[in-house]
Amino acid sequence: MSSAVYTQSGFNLGLLKFLQASPTPFHATRNLAECFLAAGFEQLNEADSWQLVPGKRYLVTRNDSSIIAFIYGRSDLLDSGIRMLGAHTDSPCLKVKPRAELNRRGYFQLGVEVYGGALLAPWYDRDLSMAGRVTYRDESGQMASALVDFKRPVAIVPSLAIHLDRDANNNRSINAQKDIVPLILQLPTEDSVLPDFRSLLHAELQASQPQLPVSQVLDYEISLYDTQPPALVGLEQDFIASARLDNLLSCYVGMQALLEADDQVSSLLICTDHEEVGSASCCGAKGPMLEQFLMRLLPETESRIRVIERSMMISADNAHGVHPNFMDKHDENHGPLLNRGPVIKVNANQRYATTSETSAFFRLLCETADVPVQAFVARTDMGCGSTIGPVVASEVGVKTIDVGCPTFAMHSIRELAGVQDAWNLYRAVVVYFCYAKPPMALLSSR
């Protein structure tokens, strides 16, 4: 089994850099792909014919926002199965509308949609930038796409002063249509003609990537994000504060662990888009991306079913840590603590895909890696979120467990995790990817 080559400090610094460089799912997927390519993975094109060879490493992307990285182990798949880990690349945010330009008393504002279940209040009074994918016509008339990131603060959503909203601290609601409209420019006069937002994107592409032959911006998928960089916080730097910890933390853990895996057994990482809005897309977990990959790897149906039966999926997505100011929001026996190890997530109504068998196997992994482990169950009188776990389990039929690092302020513009937890999850996943036997081999045959 390969041993970890990172220290916890180096691992976390790499995580901070990855978070900072990945303001959108498109950027996260590009950064993941670049790391795998640098490590010798071969990029596949879904439109081409594939000839996959045992002992080699591959990656494939879809929609520029989802990725599968795969080590094709030398061991027979019917003997070893596939060790899979899944995460998601998207996070709740504000997305710019197609006709976004608004002139309000001479202020140029952008119409936005709320993507996912975002906490809206933390978006006020933040130095915001914009990033995403732009599709354009080039100078030869062909269509192409490129990623853009303004990086600098270009937008803000100012709060209404307390003097004009005396109940702001007591019972304030936020109207997503009219209360969180970002401000990006003051016009010379109230009657000034608004700049076309596409022209602003064109100018930014020309300035940041002058080599691109952009003739006309046709359309875009642009999100706003907080420019405050990720940081280690606390008197003893016990915590990681950052946007998009849910769920780029798990993507980073999966990438680093897969880079540690050898080529004796088959291991797979899938990071998909659109989890925060239900995963129902061509590149989401409810779409066919993973199933189609497995069909191309194993075209014969019976063999594929047999391999899936000997495989396992770890669905890695952040868990709710027990908040010291709101402890009554947790079941008294299931309040995970930050820096106390990864969390096994359980739900009787299948909001999580964990079973007693997959949970037991993960506990053995953590024991082997000398990693503490915790459990989360939502209060019975409260609703429970979900993950890609139940989606993959039902779509592919693979045994699945839901785990994650405990987190505060999930779905806020800035979340909080413990410095030890991503590291400990990584250590457990390294053992998982290098485990010599099929994940379910410890179970007695029935």
Proportion in β-strands? 25-35%
CATH class of the largest domain: Alpha Beta
> According to CATH, what is the topology of the largest domain?
Aminopeptidase
Class from secondary-structure proportions = alpha/beta
Biggest pleated sheet: 9 strands, mixed
Would you identify the CATH architecture of the largest domain? Answer: 3-Layer(aba) Sandwich
Number of distinct helices: 10
Q: Roughly how many Å is the radius of gyration?
A: 23 Å
- Fourth-tier CATH superfamily name of the largest domain: Zn peptidases
Estimated helix fraction: 25-40%
In spatial order, strands of the major sheet run 1-2-3-13-4-14-18-16-17
Average pLDDT score: 94
Low-pLDDT regions:
none
Describe the structure in your own words.
By secondary structure, this protein is α/β, with parallel strands linked by helices. It folds into two domains: 275 residues, 3-Layer(aba) Sandwich (Aminopeptidase); 134 residues, Aminopeptidase i, Domain 2, CATH 2.30.250. Helices cover 25% and strands 26% of the residues. It contains ten helices and 20 strands. α8 links the parallel β16 and β17. The mean pLDDT is 94.
